[in-house]
Write a structure and sequence with these properties.
Elements: E1 4-9, H1 19-36, E2 40-43, H2 57-66, E3 72-75, E4 78-79, H3 85-98, E5 103-108, H4 115-121, H5 133-145, E6 168-173, H6 176-185, E7 188-192, H7 199-213, E8 218-225, H8 229-236, E9 241-246, E10 251-254, H9 257-267, E11 272-277, E12 281-284, H10 286-300, E13 304-308, H11 314-324
Helix pairs in contact: 1-11, 2-3, 3-5, 6-7
Domain Luciferase-like: 14-298
Protein name: Luciferase family oxidoreductase group 1
Organism: Rhodoferax ferrireducens
Length: 333
């Protein structure tokens, strides 16, 4: 089954580098991805993290659009819980008017940062009136379409400008419930396999979406290629994900034990546990990574993979992107 490749970039700041340098490298990588035929280039949203420079994806998307000509550019994703759906609709309609047919609005449910950053982002929110995520997403969809229903508290509010083509709408999630929500709203769905690569959960989620819509889901995952398997494994290293489970019922994925402890401290929770896992990373030579993608594509009906490169060194990330693009049968024309 043919499939396309896309990229997710978090603008990592390597030791000794600056945020400005990391962002310059993200733009350069987007330009190279366009030359190599990648379908999309997504940027992330992270808050309060000194090692990641991408805090405002809509700003970075605009800059990348201005420095590329063909590749689709978008968010992977906007953390909707922090924002007014009306404002998100305005921002992405504006982007779509600036670059018609090239803008992706990917939306996620996670906070994208530690509790103090979340508190700062939501400082002026009226918690008593804040809807749940499903309602926020439905409101965002309505403002994009211009179809806020009568009787809604915000009926009559119109998000401008009106672009020639609306941004492509993608829900990023890791469960069958997320897949069902995307299907109900008519959104595309990308399964976040870089956070939960459990094969059974992938199967449940992508199958739920495919059965509800007749369309395939996309799959985001960690992948890294080098000239040899040994070199690839050395560069990826002992990558771990630490899933923090708070006594409040909240759970969140974090990059280290220290980050998990700090999250619990900022949340004011002393009773918690941490589940350490090794994320699934397709690691090896370009041929071996492509064979693994072939298997996943055939098993789950995946027609697009969004590659998240779990290495911070710019030269190594660049080389991996070039090596993976060597699969002519896998990269969209």
């Amino acid at each position: 089954m043919p499939y396309s490749l896309s990229l997710l970039d978090k603008s990592p700041i390597p030791p000794g580098a600056t945020a400005a340098q990391a962002l310059q490298r993200t733009v350069a990588l987007a330009q190279r991805a366009e030359e190599l035929g990648y379908r999309r280039f997504w940027v992330a949203e992270h808050h309060g993290n000194p090692t990641l420079a991408s805090t405002a994806p809509e700003v970075l998307i605009a800059h990348i659009l201005a420095h590329t000509t063909r590749i689709r550019v978008g968010s992977g994703g906007v953390m909707l819980q922090h924002y007014s759906p009306f404002k998100v609709a305005e921002a992405f309609k504006l982007l779509a008017a600036l670059a018609p047919g090239r803008v992706d609005l990917g939306v996620g449910k996670a906070p994208g940062g530690l509790p103090l950053a979340t508190r700062a982002l939501q400082w002026l929110h009226d918690a008593a009136r804040k809807p749940d995520f499903a309602q926020q997403l439905a409101d965002l969809d309505a403002f994009l379409e211009g179809t806020v229903i009568d009787g809604h508290a915000l009926s009559g509010a119109v998000a401008y400008p009106a672009p020639p083509e609306l941004p492509e709408r993608i829900l990023l999630g890791g469960s069958a419930d997320s897949a069902a929500l995307a299907a109900r709203l008519g959104w595309d769905f990308t399964y976040a396999g870089h956070f939960n690569a459990d094969p059974a959960n992938i199967e449940r989620s992508v199958t739920a979406y495919q059965q509800a819509t007749g369309r395939p889901a996309a799959l985001a995952l960690y992948a890294f290629a080098a000239e040899s398997k040994e070199e690839a494994e050395r560069l990826v290293g002992a990558l771990r994900i630490f899933k923090l489970h708070l006594s409040t019922g909240q759970s969140v994925n974090l990059p280290s034990l220290e980050a998990a402890a700090e999250f619990a401290r900022q949340a004011g929770v002393a009773d918690y546990r941490v589940e350490e896992t090794r994320p699934y990373v397709l690691t090896g030579t370009p041929d071996s990574v492509r064979r693994a993608l072939d298997v996943l594509s055939q098993r789950h009906g995946i027609q697009e993979f969004v590659i998240d490169t779990p290495v911070v060194g710019f030269a190594e990330r660049w080389a991996s992107v070039e090596l993976l693009a060597g699969a002519e049968h896998a990269v969209a024309a």
